Amino acid sequence: MERTKILVTGGAGYIGSHAVVELYEAGFQPVIVDNFVNSQESALTGVEKILGVKVPAHNIDCNDIEALRAVFAEEGSLRGVIHFAAYKAVGESMQKPLEYYQNNVGSLLTLLQVMREFGVEALVFSSSCTVYGIPDALPVTELTPTKKANSPYGATKQMCEDILRDVVGLGSDFRTILLRYFNPIGAHDSALIGELPLGVPQNLIPYVTQTAAGIREQLTIYGDTYDTPDGTNIRDYVHVVDLAKAHVVAVQRLLDKTGDKVQTFNVGTGRGNSVLEVVQAFERATGVKVNYKIGEPRPGDVPAIYADVTKSVQELGFSTSTSLEDSLASAWKWQQTL
Length: 338
Fold this sequence. Notes:
The protein is an alpha/beta fold. It has a domain at 4-187 and 237-270 and 306-321: NAD(P)-binding Rossmann-like Domain (Rossmann fold, 3-Layer(aba) Sandwich). The protein has helices at residues 14-25, 42-51, 65-75, 90-95, 97-118, 152-168, 204-212, 240-255, 275-286, 310-316, 324-337; strands at residues 4-9, 28-33, 57-58, 78-83, 122-128, 175-181, 183-185, 219-222, 234-235, 237-239, 262-267, 273-274, 292-295. The strands form 4 sheets. Strands 3-2-1-4-5-6-11 form a 7-stranded parallel β-sheet, sandwiched between helices. The chain has a two-stranded parallel ribbon with strand order 7-10. The chain is globular. The relative contact order is 0.15. The model has no long low-confidence stretch (mean pLDDT 96).
């Protein structure tokens, strides 16, 4: 039986590579597009080892409309797209706002134009809990008002969501699901793929694992005077394989034309953990101590945010299954294979 082809932009990235594995294992044929600016080609080798097959991959930039057209033409019969490709570091976006707007908003516009030309009408969009800004109440539901973003990164995700709502409003058969991620962590059980930060990690968990492994001298926790129980930031940490599985469910939902033409879902665990709690959970899960210090708060960081996942459970039929400790243990296993 021929597999349904799904284009995965940023498919060699951290979440993208895990989604490619889950898509293939669910019976789809993923096709990867990635320019390896934020990823490494070794991820493709890992995917191939896990699946035992080579997944088609195109080394192009999603902002390059001619290159993207060529992929659509060459692959033919694409039924849907998962759009991961984007710059994703809150702190970096404060330093390079122009690059973030050009890349994140520009690539979506280019992709939508090519999808329209080729009659591809299903898009799962990689959004973020940053669209909620600093929420008035926790946990956040999909109906929580989006407020002014705390960073250019967050603003690009808000803009992209607005663009998609406008495109759907034109009355075509185009359908989209906006998945608002919380904080993905961990790695595939095989330890063949995981988070591969280039240079100094921008995210907490790779910094924790690199410090535990002795690659980094010390972890800096940015601020301990936030209005939280222990003064450090609170986030909702979701295992990357759980998150990847949510994309498979979302793709199928779009192809089945279930629900409205624009649907929004939080993808998290529904629990918040502070940075200090994560460090302590890592130490419990691995038996390895982490050398850390408290530093100044970072501009753009939201004090606390975690998801209400009722809608994802009830409508998407999706819930996470991996504990914080197990997620951290998988991240450590991945770090050790590096």
